[in-house]
Amino acid sequence: MTGQTIPRGRGDVSWIRARLRAAPGGTVALAALVLVTAFLAAALPRAVDGYENDALRDTLRQAPLTGRTVTVSQDLSRPSDDVKALLTPRSLASTESAFQRVVRPPLALDWKQTVYGVRNAEAIPMSEPWLPRPTGSRDPQATLTAQRDLARHARVITGRLPKAGGEDGVVEGVITDRTAKTMGLATGARLHLPTTTNSDLSLLITGVVRPLDSGSTFWNAEPDLRAPKLVAVPARSGDDPKRYWHFTALIDPDATANLLGLRYGAAAYWHHVADVDTLAARDVSGVRDRILALNSGPDATKLQALTGQSGLTVDEDGLADLLTPFLGERDAAQPLVVIAGFGVATVAAVVLLMAAGLQTARRRAELVLLRARGIALPGLAARLFGESAVVAVPSAAFGLGLALLLLPTERWVPAALAAAAVAATASAGLPLRGVIAARRPRLEQREDLVTARPSRRRTVAELTVAVVVAGAVAALRVRGSADGGADALTAAAPVLVAVLGALVLLRVYPLPVRLLARPAARLNSAVLHIGVARAGRAPSTAALPLLAVLVALTVASFGGSVLAGVAAGRDHAAIVDVGADARVQSFDAPLPAGLDARVRRLPGVRDTAAVRVETGQTMVGTGTTYETVIVDPERYARLTRYIGLGGPFAPDALHDDGRGPVPIVASPKLARELGNGTATVNAAMSTVAARVVGTETVSPAASGSEFIIVSEASVRRVHHATDPADTGATTLLITGTGVDGAALRSVVRDAAPGAQVLLRSEERDAYGTTTALQSGARGVYLAAVAAGAGYAVLALLLSLLHNAPQRRALLARLRTMGMSSRQRQTLAVLEMLPQVLLGAVGGILVSVATVPLLRPGVDLTALAFSTSTPAADVSAAVLRTDPASLLLPSAALIALACAVLAVQAWATGRRGEGTELRIGDRS
Predict the structure, then answer these.
(1) Average confidence (pLDDT) over 903-911
(2) Which of 132, 248, 323, 822 is paired with 255 by a 20 to 30 Å CA distance?
(3) Where are the beta strands (DSSP E) in 684-761?
(4) Domain ranges of the chain
């Protein structure tokens, strides 16, 4: 139309004010929805930053001081004038100043805790006979260290602090009180220092000091500064270990030139402790790169130019080495959070669009009238955008401020962008839906989901979506889990599968409704007939609430699949590590003969299997190392059937007829090496001729992957063995629920003090000890799933509200015709039940399909097992279908919908028919 448009300016403001006043309830509801959505959107990245930062800082605080330091060192082994100049306090301070100028963010170091100085490069053996020697032959060793500000960190107990330039051939030093007590040193003691020349040099103890703060960096950056340490020397097999004392003495920083004459010379060091409160998890990769760049990169070149020294090296085993496992664990936990965030964002966007669609449907006549009076589409869109933005933008800003206040972290930009996206979506929803509704005014007509014929455009769009989803899922399966943690494909996969499921279900939905309509029409009950007919008149706009419900249910069940996979992986790893519900094993001698019977009488014990395990066997010819497991076939078979580890063991396979080679069951690799003929294997401290009669991939008794299983009766026949040392069981595998660990250990301690007791439950509990990263990711995921479920319920309620006026009018008319209250409630439930069942059943089907589709692309190993609790077998830590997470959300959704509809029908009966009918006429 080209008619006269409504003038802009103050009229726009007045019109917006009038519209907001005309529907205060809708305005408040939209403001509340946008506020909550913006708060959740802004809170998610801040919550992730919060738990990741807490996990990183806990890791740093719990690590030893040497593990969270960046150390610069310099080898000064050449006794020249230039080298002596580098040992002076001024030169060391100049190098430290240059290093501080080179260090750049995100590497944050606490400069107040910096410690630097000089020490002899290698410890010096002390030959004084009166020094303590634990093993009688190894001389104690000493290190001389010069660190600045000794007087500020120690209190002199006896004597005085060391000085430089004293007696020729003498280096003055002090030791701590703990060192003096352990080494038998006192003020005035002299220790001979061997040098590379024939000159004499001795250490004079001028005083004994006590640290003012024994936990400070000054006393812990260098080893054995506070107290001497007993060092063990690696010994040959069968020899007793040798130990010696190592202690440190502190000398004056101006006397460091004397260290160059010692063996291996001297070494300068600069220890820098990480600023724990400043480092953030998002900067971990950057911190590692900065540390590496200090060794070989532009920063290393700059440091060399500033100091004029080329021998400076940065230790990469401290802070950088500590951050590596943190990175791996964080990358493993990220996909879980990103998937939940992507899912709840999709559901929230759908709810915002549904709210805009509901408002557009109620104002359709108004929009068409404005269009008929000449308003242009851009002008209409601007007015609707202003009306929405006036509510959405302040609400989103308030939600953002609430998130910034309640979840304090360093970054605010991601939260602001998320809140801005919510404000933009909420502001643009009404203009888009309004322009589409008013673009081509047409007569009011029903758009029933059952009778509507999909257009070619819709068919092409749906096929395109199906192809994209299939390609994305196929790429995820082929590629596997992302190497760098979460990515867009991993995050969007569950949502894409849910979108495809929604399209398929919308296509399938008319078929069962049509099939039910004909038999329902022949029944005498009007309630069922009208209910099915009304279900067939569901509007075609039911796609959005169905999509919201499917995405929410899929994300919720995906989280349940992750948790179920983690639990199953830990259970499997525990049973592989132990081999049964409990395990008693001896490494030095066979277990006592009566231990089996005593253990079987303990409460909770179901059965036992005594086996002999001989480790360290070597296959002749191939060199393959394997274990020999000597078993009672019947009891061993009962064990394998009970724990379900490996295939069902057939005891008849080891039946020995007394002639020929001994039958054995071997691992697949050993079976191939042994072949089909007779081979020689080790069993019962000797060799036997054996033939392979079967294979097993895993044995609960063996700790490794290569093994052979032989019957103890066959071993006795071949060796005629009667000595228990040759045939006695070394391992007792115990099955039973609730095995009492304390009682079992008590029995084993009395019978075999050297035996080890392992419990499956304790191993499982050790795996279940989650780290801060794992627990934080799980908490955020559960919160996101709860938010998604809330939005799904809201989407369902909005879909019920869409046709609420017509439903109330229909129920009022039926009441005037004599329909009872119970019948009206049943009718209201039957009308919406097919759509609710479509969402619930569809959610279950999509969730069931999601698990096998995405299983190859999601790695749960790092979530199930942390670096501190590694497992021998992690193959079972994969996505698994969890029945509870599939059924409970869907059942709750159906129950809620039925309750809302029944309450709505009951409320309609309490109002006057005339009022409801007039509302229906106006609607």
Answers:
(1) 62
(2) 132
(3) 686-695, 707-711, 731-735, 756-759
(4) 122-259, 451-576+772-923, 587-754
